[in-house]
Amino acid sequence: MILSMTGFGRAETVYEGTKITVDIKSLNSKNFDLNVKTPLRYKEKEFEIRKLLNDKILRGKVDCYINCESLEDSNDVKINHDIVKNYMDQLRAVASDAPEFEYLKMAVRMPDVLSTKNSDLDENEWKSLLVVVQDSVSKFIEFRQTEGNNLAEEIEKIVQNIENNLNQVAQYEYERIQPIKDRYQSALKNFENIDETRYYQEMVYFVEKLDISEEKVRLSQHIKYYLEVMRNEDFNGKKLGFIAQEMGREINTLGSKANHSEIQKLVVEMKDDLEKIKEQTLNVL
């Protein structure tokens, strides 16, 4: 089955008056590219969070945002006055002609100016965070499955269009060869002592050069294989991309041998549909 590389999942929980929210979103990418933004208190667990996301998400350009929001009035936040004063003294020594409030504005943005009680992450809070991350990943995967189903329906319609156009080629095959035979026979009437055996050998050689039966068979097989992989294999995006490339080779060869305006039109339609398939396949996990 198809999974979309695009996904979104959000989950949240409340732990001791603090609301913890986890957002995960992704776009298509050839590899796994993960960006995690988390509050400082959860930094020590970032490696474990990354490993969990890597194991579950597999591929895509992924952003994971973890946010904490206090739901209660709290006096736990404390300004470290001595640190602020020290920063201001150092800033004043660097540039003594600035207004005092400018030193203060810069100092309060410096590290360790604010401190909170119970800033260390305890085991129970980590367990709560882990649960909400896992819940967000589950919703993210559900989103991918839903998008994948929609993607599969769209791709299958386009593949069917290619197959329908391929089937229409057969009705023009006699038309593309017979005029050539007639043209040669008409030209040969102006010559005497024609070696008919050599003439028919040349005709057979020319017709074989224009023969498209192998291309039609191979393209039909690629179409069937594409649909089989799409319906029955997991994490099949790269494989589907390879099969689409093979389909393109057969369509191009078909066009170069067409020698008929209506077949050329069908080839153009197939190329247009194939480009749509390639574009959609880029978003398949």
TrEMBL record:
One Pfam family, short name: YicC-like_N
Tree of life domain: Bacteria
Keywords, in A-Z order: ATP-binding, Endonuclease, Hydrolase, Nuclease, Nucleotide-binding
Domain Endoribonuclease YicC-like N-terminal as annotated: residue spans: 2-152
Enzyme category, top tier: hydrolase
Enzyme Commission designation: 3.1.-.-
This protein's record includes keyword Aminoacyl-tRNA synthetase: no
InterPro entries: YicC-like_C, YicC-like_N, YicC/YloC-like
Endoribonuclease YicC-like C-terminal domain: residues covered: 175-284
Swiss-Prot/TrEMBL cofactor(s): a divalent metal cation
Molecular function via GO: ATP binding; hydrolase activity
NCBIfam families linked: YicC/YloC family endoribonuclease
Protein family (similarity comment): Belongs to the YicC/YloC family.
Protein name: YicC/YloC family endoribonuclease
Organism of origin: Epilithonimonas ginsengisoli
